[in-house]
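Subject: design request, 105 residues
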C-alpha cells in the first residue's frame, strides 16, 4: 500500500508520522491536495499566570503550578518526504459494571 493510500485511510485520525530524514512527530491528517499532506501538528504550550498575580500566599514546595495545554497548527508536508504512518493507539477504558437498583419490596 502506498503512502498516498495510507494517508487517505488515516484522514481525521491521530497518527505518528515518520519522515525520511529520521524525524517523527504526531498529528492529525487533515487532508491531501495533490502531492501535499496537510497535518495538524501538536505542540505543547506552558503558561505561567504568576506574573500578574498579587497574593500573599507562601510559595508552593515544588514550584508554581503551570497551566499546560496543547495547540495544533496546520502544516503542509510533501508526500515524498514521508517514510511511514502509524495510528496513535489510545487505551480502551472498560466501562464499569452497571449495578441494578434494588428490588422494591
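Subject: RE: design request

Done. Sequence follows.
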Amino acid at each position: 500500500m502506498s503512502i498516498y493510500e495510507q494517508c487517505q485511510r488515516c484522514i481525521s485520525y491521530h497518527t505518528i508520522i515518520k519522515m525520511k530524514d529520521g524525524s517523527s512527530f504526531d498529528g492529525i491528517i487533515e487532508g491531501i491536495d495533490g502531492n501535499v499532506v496537510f497535518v495538524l501538528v501538536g505542540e505543547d504550550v506552558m503558561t505561567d499566570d504568576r506574573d500578574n498575580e498579587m497574593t500573599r500566599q507562601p510559595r508552593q514546595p515544588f514550584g508554581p503550578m503551570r497551566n499546560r495545554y496543547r495547540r495544533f497548527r496546520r502544516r503542509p508536508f510533501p508526500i515524498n518526504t514521508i517514510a511511514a504512518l502509524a495510528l496513535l493507539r489510545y487505551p480502551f477504558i472498560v466501562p464499569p459494571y452497571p449495578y441494578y437498583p434494588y428490588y422494591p419490596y
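The chain has a mean pLDDT of 82.
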